[in-house]
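Review form for a predicted model. The reviewer records the input and the model, then writes brief findings.
Reviewer: anonymous (R2)
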Amino acid sequence: MSGIGCNDMLETSVTSTQALSLLSPFMLFAVLIYFIAGLVKGTLGIGFPTTAVSLLAQTTDARTAISLVVVPMVVTNAWQCWRSGQARWVITRFWRLLVFMLLFIALFSQLASAVPVMYLTAILGAVVSLYAASSLYKPVVRIPAKHDKKAQVMTGMSAGIMGGMAGVWAPPILVYLTARGMSKDQFVATTGLLLFLGSSVLFAGYWHGGLLGPAIVTLSCVLLLPSMLGMVCGEQLRDRLSAKRFERVLLWFFLLMGLNLIRRALL
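Model under review:
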């Protein structure tokens, strides 16, 4: 971002007055968006940052929208992880993915304000869209167990690069877990832990990189309430979905997510 510091831009885009004025149009719109994002997260176990960032970016700059989502993202994923009660199983099963993801998020979050992410975002969006569209009309491609170690490393690296630079790292993880044939409960438990740890590292990286000013953190904390309310409502919806319908809804969400990534790259 040439000509202006990233932290200065954030404080210009969302002032302290905006952050503390609960009745401002921006704040009311943000509350609605974060409730919707929480609803998606509670239903599918994923999609909170994608929903929040893509909608909020319609009223503010993309970097501000990404920075605002960090605190609610940490808390909603911590809640999901605690509710699943399968943290030990997830760590034992997916430790390779976890290690590479955290390392690459920590590294690339330091480059977030200097490296353009347009091409990376467009490529990832195209891959996710193609995977989802093809899987909706034919059986989901599965990764054999013998290739799981390599798949975890590749998934962790790609998720870490995307997460550190753009604040959205779920797509590679989602494609991997779906291709490994995870059950609904296993899927939610795994994404909860992986996204919680990843978002915690992202928060630390953004804080160290000066991307989280006082106004951003204040507004982000205020938006926790609608986020959690939406998530609780979404969990009730998820309990009513069969395994087959859950997978179909997930694939449609993949498709929308991939198309949205392409949109973000082109605009």
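Findings: The chain has 14 helices and no strands.
Further findings: The chain has one domain: 6-266.
Recommendation: see findings above.
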